[in-house]
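User: Can you model how NAP sits in this protein?
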Amino acid sequence: MKITVIGGTGLIGSQLVTRLRDAGHEVVPASLSSGVDLLTGAGLDKALEGAETVVNVTNSPTFDRDSLAFFRTTVGNLLTAGEQAGVRHQVALSIVGVDQVPQLDYYRAKTLQEELLREGPAAYSVVRATQFFEFMDATMSWTSDDREVRLPATRTQPIATADVVAALADVTTGTPLNGILDVAGPDVLPLDELGRITLAARQDPRPVVTDPRAGLFAAVDGDVLIAGPGARIAPTHYRDWLAAASAR
Ligand SMILES: NC(=O)c1ccc[n+]([C@@H]2O[C@H](COP(=O)([O-])OP(=O)(O)OC[C@H]3O[C@@H](n4cnc5c(N)ncnc54)[C@H](OP(=O)(O)O)[C@@H]3O)[C@@H](O)[C@H]2O)c1
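Assistant: Here's the modeled complex, given as structure tokens:
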């Protein structure tokens, strides 16, 4: 199967390209650095030539209000170019609970991405993943200083990106869902506890102070970030992943 991965150099995209190629598919990675700009459409027609399926794993450069314009424009361009190129299946990576946090600009932008796909001309699949293990450092950096890390006790169900990629590859090469699949890690953990586990694994002595107002995820209530019924539950536990990462 010929598959174009838009965002093929990113954290998810680069792993997905390798996994699909290892499974014997013809894969075209496309992104800004290979001359394909989803914002302007430059290079898109060539990147989609002969592709049966396109996977969109791009990301907006900011998480603020500008992300709405980014996803509106880029998804519009990809749907139009895909239709012209005869793409039969459009796949996108989104976030578990994304439509239940309208107070976050970035989540509204990702919800818009899903809506555009649903209303678009092609068969589609949305894979919604929970927070990536690899994203924990960035999350802590927003609300850390030399003395302490502040995090809310927001309930999360984080996942390794390798497990996201495995699910995304299965969906990409399968029959279009014309719907949503949730994928999540095996453990539900409050974000402040995840911070403590992370610092302990790195022998970082700073305390994690539970702060219901700290950072992006402070805006999220209850179990919004927890996968729903029917989710694909991934095998990798955060503690094992941390131990493997520090042994490398
Ligand atoms: N972080 C999380 O916990 C989480 C959870 C669930 C879902 N997600 C979703 O996962 C997706 C992928 O995230 P990621 O961390 O893999 O992203 P990433 O590492 O930041 O990679 C972004 C990719 O988008 C490409 N790109 C950016 N602007 C572009 C443009 N105008 N035209 C073409 N390509 C463009 C980049 O290309 P260059 O490298 O060439 O510049 C890069 O390949 C995101 O949509 C995000 O919402 C994230």
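A couple of observations from the model: The longest helix spans residues 66-85. The pocket of NAP is lined by residues 6-7, 9-13, 31-33, 36-39, 57-59, 93, 95, 110, 129, 131-132, 135 (CB under 6 Å).
User: Helpful, thanks.
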